[in-house]
Amino acid sequence: MYRHREFAQVVYGHWNDFIKAQHELNAVSRKRSWPESSIWAPVVGTGNQVAVEREFADLTAFAKFQEAFQSDSDAMKIYRGMSSLVVQGSVHDELFQEVIGLLA
Hints:
Layout: E1 2-9, H1 15-32, E2 38-40, E3 49-56, H2 59-71, H3 73-81, E4 92-97
Antiparallel strand pairs: 1-3, 1-4, 2-3
Helix pairs in contact: 1-3
């Protein structure tokens, strides 16, 4: 299992706009049978920070999603529209692999 997280700091006063846009992306994901994102916010830490998370069965599924998402005009229109809602330079992402067993 792989977990992809995107982090950003939302511009003050635009939290609800960001969340609405993320819900719109999830609606596109449902229509395309892509994994939907869960939305997380830290309890303490950087103000207006948000984490958006998706799970994938394997790296192939992650790569297929990335290619499909970036080729989809509906998804990219929403995603690009979100650029004014986040603090420039605050966006970063991570990809985690689930640890199942011991190493050899």
